[in-house]
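Recall that a protein's primary structure is simply its ordered list of amino acids. Everything else, from secondary elements to tertiary packing, is in principle encoded there. The following example makes that idea concrete.
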Amino acid sequence: MRMVDIIHKKRDGFELTHEEIQFFIQGYVKEKIPDYQVSALMMAIFFKEMSETELSFLVYEMVKSGDVIDLTAIQGIKVDKHSTGGVGDKTSLIVGPLVASAGIPVAKMSGRGLGHTGGTIDKLESIDGFKTELSETEFIKQVNDVKIAIAGQTGHLVPADKMLYALRDVTATVESIPLIASSIMSKKLASGADAIVLDVKVGSGAFMKTMDEAKRLAEAMVTIGESLNRKTVAVISSMNQPLGHEIGNANEVREAIQTLKGEGPEDLQELCLTIASHMVVLGGIVDQVDVAYQLLLSKLKDGSAYNRFKTFIERQGGNLKSLETKQAKYHIDVRVKQKGYLHRVDTEGIGMAAMLLGAGRKEKGDPIDHSVGITMHKKLGDELNQDDIIFTIHANRDQVSEVIDRLNQSYDVQENSFEKEGIVYRVITK
């Protein structure tokens, strides 16, 4: 078998066999196939895409390329969740304890943020003492004891994905739906969960800018999961504005705590309850989403969800009181310049503004300032008066003119009223 023949076959739009995909993945991981040939195949996939069968074979081989976490020692159906990334997205901090409070085990591997999107591990590291690296024994014991653990991803998980992503990043093939789907699902499947709920973001702050793109990605990932014997559901949600009000690590943790106490922003609570409801159904506690929703709403109201969060944080060494000290030195208000209604938000631009403050990374390895960030006080459709505060910048330097300029360019105000949209667009199942 030759790699050039595989490239030729996919270039001409034919379906690759399992053996051909296995040859390509194993050869690349073992460094027997050069980057330039894999780049050519990635571009062929970009233009010709992949069938459901090909995608399943690709993900299966990617998972096999490294460690696969064995969670069979954890009692019950293990349900994981994944977000495709957004601004102000602190759902894992809420959904995990919420689902765990209903008795469903949540064994989650999370990553760090890059660019305009934040990472769950970065947010958790805002809490002094929180331990993001757990041994397999510690991880499994904690999930059995308190029903939830969140740890950083192991360096030996899906090496094929790390290699392919690095290559896609420099060959203009990042936006390929099959390659995005295989990247996400290979990591989720290697993490050992029995069932997965995917939060697929769409809009100005998401990787998928249109509903058609988001739907195609959601359907591809659900198909992959189901074909490899994992119950999988995808929730397509809006990222046309930041989720909740807070952007920035410690600020987002505080907003997550408010939400776990039943006092959070409406959009954030609604999305978290929706995702968590599908997780509870997949976990086998109840068989109807609306019943699960009411059950979880009661967990917010009676304090069970927040208490589970506190137990989870303390078990991993975190000191929640330390959040009180994670405050930026300067707080600078950005005011609306005209009266009207908030019509458009450049969510990615707001995320990039937070990154400029130090809340995110331009490149992997860049340091994070957990105390800085942005509060967005208004939502799409809100009526605004001139000089209303729309943003508050939380910074550790007093010169933030470039951030102010970016924020002033990140929204539009118009005279006519604007109908507010819901946070959840649709749910994709097999």
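Residues 79-322 form a domain with the Pyrimidine Nucleoside Phosphorylase; Chain A, domain 2 fold (CATH 3.40.1030.10). The chain has a mean pLDDT of 94.
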